[in-house]
Structures are given as C-alpha cells and as structure tokens.
Specification:
This protein has about 130 residues and is α/β, with parallel strands linked by helices. The chain has a single domain, classed as 2,3-Dihydroxybiphenyl 1,2-Dioxygenase, domain 1 (Roll), CATH 3.10.180.10.
Length: about 130
C-alpha cells in the first residue's frame, strides 16, 4: 500500500552536508531566518541530523564521516534558490550575520530581484523576490 502524505508535506527537501551541523543549524537560522524543525543528537551529544523550515520548504542537514565541504574543496558544489517576501530586508539580515555576499540585490530581466551569498562552509544560496513581471 502506498504511503499518503499530508497536504503540506514537502515533495523535495535538499539534504546539505556540513562539517559542523550544529554551527550550520544556528547560523542558517540566524542569517537566513530559517526555523528549526527537528534535530537528532548522538549519545555523545553530537548533532548528526537536523531539519530547518522556511515557509513550506524543508532543508535537511547532516555530517557524514570524512566529509569535505565546498570551502575546503575550493569549488561550489550546490546552489539553492529561495523565494522570500522582501529580498532587500533579507539581504541586510544575511549581511549583518556576516554572510559572504556574492552580489547585492539586483533586478533580473526574468522578473526576479535577487542576491547571492555563501554560507560559512561554502554552499551557495540565492534569495529572490518576484517583481511580478
């Protein structure tokens, strides 16, 4: 029998790897306004898995053994595109949290205003607001 999911259950949830899941969880919540949804801690107190919410989206975080993050690799390995209500206010929040800015908010010909940013371990994010074009 197929499992039925609740109506608001996310159909796609990116799973990002971090060397320090606990630090990533705190930073992403502070800098980007994500809300903690779940955390799983090992017997030794190490945070191994966590989930963050942003609207109807869920982002999962984990720390696999022997992991090397994008900053250590010296290259971008993933890009995440997130829609926000006020991209300029979001930019100011991320900048105040010390995010590495990849470009300030700007209007794009395809109808979004967006900015780029890297988190402390080198994952690339874009935050965008629709201009209604």
């Amino acid at each position: 029998m197929a499992q039925e999911y609740p109506e608001n259950y996310p159909r796609l949830s990116p799973y990002l790897y971090y060397r320090d899941t606990a630090a990533a969880l705190e930073w992403l919540a502070h800098a980007f306004g994500f809300r903690e949804r779940f955390r799983s801690v090992d017997d030794d107190g190490t945070l191994r898995h966590a989930e963050l919410e942003f609207g109807d989206a869920v982002i999962m975080l984990g720390s696999p053994p022997d992991y090397r993050n994008p900053k250590e690799l010296g290259q971008v390995t993933v890009g995440l595109y997130v829609h926000v209500d006020d991209v300029d206010a979001h930019f100011e929040q991320a900048k105040a949290a010390g995010a590495e800015i990849d470009g300030p908010p700007e209007d794009k010909p395809y109808g979004d205003r967006l900015y780029g940013v890297f988190d402390p371990e080198g994952h690339q994010w874009w935050f965008a607001q629709s201009l209604g074009k």
